[in-house]
Amino acid sequence: MEAIDKISYPAQGTYTGEGLNLVRTGLFDVSARQGVRNILIVMTDGVSQDDVQGPSKKLRDMGVTIFSFGIGTQYKKDELDEMATDPNSKHVITGDFNELDQLVAIIEKLACDGAGGAGLLGQVGGAGISGSTGVSGGAGSSGGVGISGGAGSSGSSGGVGISGWAGSSGGVGISGGAGASGGAQDCAAIVDLAFLLDGSGSIGPGNFQKCLEFLKDFVQGFNIAKDGTHIGIVLYSKTSEIIFNFDTYFDAKSMIEAIAKISYPALGTFTGEGLNLVRTGLFDVSARQGVRDILIVMTDGASQDDVKDPSKKLRDMGVTIFSFGIGTQYNKRELEEMATNPSSKHVITCGGFSKLRQLLPIIEKMACDGAGATGAGGAGLVGGASISGGAGASGGAGVSGGAGASGSLGVSVEQGYQVGQGIGGAGVSGGAGVSGGAGVSGGTGISGSTGVSGVRGHQAA
Question: Per the database record, which ranges form the VWFA domain (predicted)?
Answer without folding.
Answer: 1-110, 192-366
